[in-house]
Amino acid sequence: MAEEIGNQESAEQNGPVVQLQRCYFKDASLEMPHAPEVFTEALEEQPVVDIQFEVAPQQLSVPDYYEVVVRGTVTVKSKEQVLFLVEGKQAGIFQISGIGEEDTRHLLNVYCPSIVYPYLRANVADLITRTSMPPVHLPEVNFEALYQQRLAQMQQQAESSVQPAASGSGQA
User: Fold this and answer.
1) Model confidence over 105-119: pLDDT tens digits?
2) Which of 25, 78, 135, 169 is the most exposed place for a label (fewest CB within 10 A)?
3) In this structure, how many other beta carbons lie within 10 angstroms of the beta carbon of residue 163?
4) Domain 44-153's class?
5) How far is CA 22 from CA 35, 58, 62, 68, 94, in A?
C-alpha cells in the first residue's frame, strides 16, 4: 500500500495522470414481454429500433478517483409491441490528477466514456444474441458532440430560469 501511494505521489510530481483502473459491467436488464409469441408470429413489418445513451460520471470517496457509467438502452418494437428491451451499464474507475477542473469534466464526459463504451457494445450485443432475435449492434457514438449538446442545453435552461423581475403594481 505504501509503495502504491509512493508511486501515485511520483506520478503527480511528473505531470497529469489519466488512467483506467478498472472496467466492469455494472448492470444488465433484458425484457422480452411477449415471448414466446414473438417467435411464432411472422413479423409483418420491419421492427423499429430505438437506442438511447447516457453518461454519468461521479467522484469517488478516494481522492482523484472517478466512476464513469455509460448506459445504453435498446428497445425493439413491431407495431407498437415491444419485442425486447435491453439495458446495460458499463462502468470504469479512472484515476485523474494534475488536471484542471474544466479539463477533468471534459475527460469524464468524453474521453472516459469512449474507453468504456466498446465494452458496453460487446456486452449488449451478447445479451441480444442470447435472445435469439436478430442482432442489433450499437453504433459508434460521438461523446464530444453529446457533451457539447448537454452543455448547450444546461446553458439554455440556466438562461431561461433567470427571468427579469416583473414591474408593475402588485398587491402586497
Assistant:
1) 999 999 999 999 999
2) 169
3) 7
4) alpha beta
5) 36, 15, 14, 11, 7
